[in-house]
């Protein structure tokens, strides 16, 4: 069953004429990463309000039709079918890469343009397509930046705690391929076969200097961090989480000081644009906490689609044809799409990438450690 959520924000009728409906996929319930979904939706909704205050998309109000994917690829594919039948002009959103891949595949088959907000899996579709575009950087680019950060910090024996997933397997492959020619070794540890305590023993026996959490949050990521932090034999090991688990407040709430000094990837520039600074202020008030990079990705998604609607109208085929011609000043820089080698969808090649962590002296504050 597909969860029905309210269409978005009050005030969507400020522009004239019938609304242009945009289908939105977000994880809002478990086992999805609901906090990420909440931030993504907040950014999307704020942008719709701003777009409609400015006259809408091509003179028509923009309306979001939201569906909860709960991190379920089958549920996402069913939602795409439903949204297509409802007549949405385009599809947007999604945080989880495996879910976004299912949505992109189905949207492509239906001729429904899809602007993916926050999923990074390189192979978002099996074959190149003109219908799908993406704002977040591909996993290969981000995780190579992360691997360079580890090498620069002197880490060459890197353990990865893994779970079965196309996304995690892709991450292991990217790390191994990038590190091996530079003298790095990747040691894969299967969390299905190892308790957190047994994993600590493996880290000692294998002489790993860094442990990367390629696992779900909060389980088993949180118990692993606690075990490693409390093991005196591993006092010098670097814990990392390239997929971004420490970005959200729940991480700090569950782990406290243990959750600090764990580097992760964040897709923000050193300085937000003037638009980004204004959006940050409003999102902070709406979310009652600092907005994550995912919230900015949500805002930029609607900013891009609104420009497409203004310049090319609401016809699905014309939207899909517009990706290489659109240029929009977003919260994190100028968004333009191009073809990137090895990537099957239209890609924002200029998406910013940072490696950051929570400051041990103040876990609510982030430190930029590396940029790429």
List keywords for this structure.
11 helices, 4-stranded parallel beta sheet, 9-stranded mixed beta sheet, single chain, alpha/beta, disordered N terminus, 372 residues
The average pLDDT is 95
The rounded Rg comes to 20 Å
Order of helices and strands: EEHEHEHEEHEHEHEHEHEHHHEEEEE
What is the 3D shape? globular
Strand segment tally: 16
**Parts with pLDDT < 50 across at least 5 consecutive residues:** 1-13
Q: Structural class per helix/strand content?
A: alpha/beta
As a percent range, the share of strand residues is 15-25%
- Can you count the helices? 11
Assign a percent range to the helix content.
Answer: 25-40%
Describe this structure in words.
The chain is an alpha/beta fold and 372 residues long. It has 11 helices and 16 strands. A 9-stranded mixed beta sheet has the order 1-3-2-4-5-6-14-13-12, sandwiched between helices. A 4-stranded parallel beta sheet has the order 8-7-9-10, sandwiched between helices. A 3-stranded antiparallel beta sheet has the order 11-15-16. Helix 3 links the parallel strand 4 and strand 5. Helix 2 packs parallel to helix 3 and helix 4 (139-152) crosses helix 5 (166-179). The longest helix is centred in the N-terminal third of the chain and has 20 residues, at 34-53. The chain is globular and about 65 Å long.
């Amino acid at each position: 069953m597909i969860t029905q959520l309210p269409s978005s924000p009050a005030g969507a009728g400020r522009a004239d004429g019938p609304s242009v409906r945009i289908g939105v996929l977000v994880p809002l319930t478990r086992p999805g990463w609901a906090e990420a979904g909440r931030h993504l939706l907040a950014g999307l909704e704020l942008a719709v309000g701003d777009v409609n205050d400015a006259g809408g998309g091509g003179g028509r109000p923009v309306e979001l039709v939201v569906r909860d994917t709960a991190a379920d690829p089958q549920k996402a594919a069913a939602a795409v079918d439903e949204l297509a039948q409802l007549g949405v002009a385009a599809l947007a959103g999604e945080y989880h890469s495996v879910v976004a891949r299912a949505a992109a595949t189905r949207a492509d088959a239906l001729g429904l343009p899809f602007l993916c907000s926050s999923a990074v899996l390189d192979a978002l579709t099996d074959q190149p397509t003109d219908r799908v575009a993406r704002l977040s950087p591909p996993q290969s680019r981000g995780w190579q930046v992360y691997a360079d950060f580890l090498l620069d910090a002197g880490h060459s024996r890197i353990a990865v705690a893994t779970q079965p997933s196309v996304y995690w397997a892709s991450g292991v492959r990217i790390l191994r391929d990038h590190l091996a020619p530079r003298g790095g070794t990747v040691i894969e540890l299967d969390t299905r076969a190892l308790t957190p305590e047994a994993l600590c023993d493996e880290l000692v026996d294998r002489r790993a200097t860094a442990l990367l959490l390629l696992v779900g949050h909060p389980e088993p990521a949180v118990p692993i961090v606690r075990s490693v932090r409390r093991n005196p034999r591993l006092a010098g090991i670097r814990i990392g989480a390239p997929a971004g688990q420490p970005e959200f407040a729940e991480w700090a709430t569950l782990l406290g000081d243990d959750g600090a000094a764990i580097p992760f990837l964040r897709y923000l520039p050193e300085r937000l644009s003037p638009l980004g600074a204004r959006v940050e202020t409003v999102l902070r008030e709406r979310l009652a906490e600092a907005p994550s990079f995912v919230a900015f990705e949500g805002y930029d998604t609607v900013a891009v689609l609104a420009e497409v609607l203004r310049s090319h109208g609401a016809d699905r085929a014309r939207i899909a044809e517009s990706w290489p011609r659109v240029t929009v000043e977003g919260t994190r820089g100028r968004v333009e799409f191009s073809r990137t080698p090895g990537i099957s969808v239209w890609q924002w090649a200029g998406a910013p990438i940072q490696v950051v962590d929570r400051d041990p002296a103040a876990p609510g504050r982030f430190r930029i450690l590396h940029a790429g």
